[in-house]
Amino acid sequence: MRLREVHAVYRPVAGAPAGPRPQVNTGRDAAGIISPLLAGSLVERFGVLTVDTKHRVIGWDVVSVGTLDATIVHPRDVFRVALQQNAAAVIVAHNHPSGDPTFSADDETLTRRLQTAGEMMGIAVLDHVVIGDAGRYCSFKEQAVTRG
Fold first, then answer.
1. 18, 20, 31, 71: which is deepest, by most CB within 10 A?
2. Per the domain annotation, does 2 fall within a domain?
3. What is the DSSP code string of 91-134?
4. Range of the structural domain that residue 50 is part of
5. What predicted TM-score, i.e. pTM, was given to this entire model?
6. Cα–Cα distance between 43 and 45 in angstroms, integer?
7. How many domains are contained in the chain?
8. Residue 16 included in any domain
9. Alpha-carbon gap, residue 101 to 109, rounded angstroms
10. Nearest to 55 by CA among 126, 144, 139
């Protein structure tokens, strides 16, 4: 039998703001934190912003790196990060290297799948943010409100 041990080491991200952890209440808040982390990527990167019960940022982890126009994401990878960081909720995000942050049908399907998995685990998926270029972003939560 083989036993494994995992050691996680967290370090501050270069350029991260000093002081208290930022609180994330809107898609704009999330995009402001995540955009610099995904800026300039030529392939899709999908990550998880973990937050505590007051929606203060705990951490950011990239869980999938894909190709020019796709990446594969499994709920187990998203929620593994949330469990490891003892997060109350998550905001998931990815970039569109094309620069157009419009949600695809696959993005919407994935968001609903993650929300369902999160409900079963007691970890809320607060939003899914797609990062484009020039500060543009789309927030699933904000779009759902405008759609009615």
1. 31
2. no
3. EEEEE-TTS--PPPHHHHHHHHHHHHHHHHHT-EEEEEEEE-ST
4. 27-147
5. 0.86
6. 6
7. 1
8. no
9. 16
10. 126
